[in-house]
Amino acid sequence: MAALRLQSGSDRDPTTSPVEAEPLPYTSVATPKSGDRPSQGSRSRQGSNNRRNQCYTVEAPRLALEWRALQLEVTVQNAQTKAPEQKVILEQLSGVARPGELLVVMGPSGAGKSSLLDCISGRNTAIQGAATVNGAPWNKHLKRFAAYVMQEDLFHATLTVREHLALQARLRMSGSFTHEQYLGRVDTLLEEFGLAKSKDTLIGGWMQRGISGGERKRLALATELLTNPSVLFADEPTSGLDSFMAKSVVQQLQRLAVREGRTVVTTIHQPSSEVFALFDRLELLADGATVYQGKAAEAMPYFANCGFQCPTFMNPADYFMEQIVVVDTDVGGAERVRSLKEAWKTHAIQRSEVVEVVNPQDVNSSNTSGNQVTMTASGGNMDDFEDPRASVYGQISVLATRNALRLLRDKTALRLQTIQTLMTTVLVGIIFFQLTLDQQGVSNFSGAFFYVVTEQVYGASMPAIMS
Length: 467
Prior knowledge:
Layout: E1 3-8, H1 43-51, E2 54-59, E3 65-77, E4 84-97, E5 102-106, H2 113-120, E6 128-133, E7 136-137, E8 146-149, H3 161-172, H4 179-192, H5 213-224, E9 231-235, H6 243-258, E10 263-267, H7 273-276, E11 281-286, E12 289-295, H8 299-305, H9 316-324, H10 331-350, H11 392-409, H12 411-431, H13 439-466
Parallel strand pairs: 5-10, 5-11, 8-9, 9-10
Antiparallel strand pairs: 1-2, 3-4, 3-6, 6-7, 11-12
Helix pairs in contact: 3-4, 5-6
């Protein structure tokens, strides 16, 4: 059960530090932080602090993921014979992801990292085997507890960071919340992800400068955390970032897992040694099969026992990648990867670690039956707010507001759309000028209205079609 409760700021113990506190059996995010007081500065800052005088506590259950004998095959066309054939993307993968741990999936390009993420998150159901949440299969209720951060960041360049989060909050959170509660949740995430200083900065894009790449990744994480998910999936969150920014993003993921008790699963291509030290658990994939799955700190001893000793002062992640990357002309590399696959199968069978069984009692499974997912404001009935999303009218209102802001700030698009509208108006006016008031005129009127409506619909939907 996920719930958003409104508490008085006095209910909190001011002597308790959020850093020193032990992880709770649920995720807790609260503002204001300890000792936060309204400043003596400008009225805008006083208003922001007054809005955070009430503490918003978000609770989410602890969920564990488990997958057994996961097999994914796709039908491809043979380049020579043109005949369809089956290609194995994932081969008999098994593993677990627990609350409070950061699980990182590593492997070369084409190893199946993103495919594994799609399968265990319930996005791809065309699989053999089982992918469960606390022992239950994915369903539409359980998926409300999960969030997925895509590899490509999709933002509107002409919106500010705070405007983006505020609009997303109105779309994703239930209409039972007040405007002040929306902004309170947004301000909480801005502070937690280090985006407070750039909250009034345009996000920007390839034609317009805006926030940095690291800030874009943190904004993507903050967007998905608006509804306080129990499980977070992130596909290549460090892609395109320098080592410092990549480390800051992974630190945020580790904080979400360790300090807030979430289940975090992410894919990373080739991290630095400092980033690798932040991993709790590691899964190495090669050609769709597992070559290691377990604690990240135990990966080096395991490879050493297999005859692959990592040199001193070398980045373990780089060494692992060297062992599992195979090029077409590397015959020895293919044999090495095959031996690593067989070694892991033997090791897993001997130690019964093919699947580490999740104890439902350890992850508070009583709250995760999947029968009901709710987000409620204080003083309301949970049954009244079962669907956390905005209503259809609310979604139309938010999207219209966002589109108006985008057009008003994008001068080029505004000019082009104005010119297009004027040209369409003149063209339709000339074609259907001085229609006769008879049956033929009525038919012509109908044709004119149909043309105008069709032009508007296709014009509005073309960006979605092109993307």
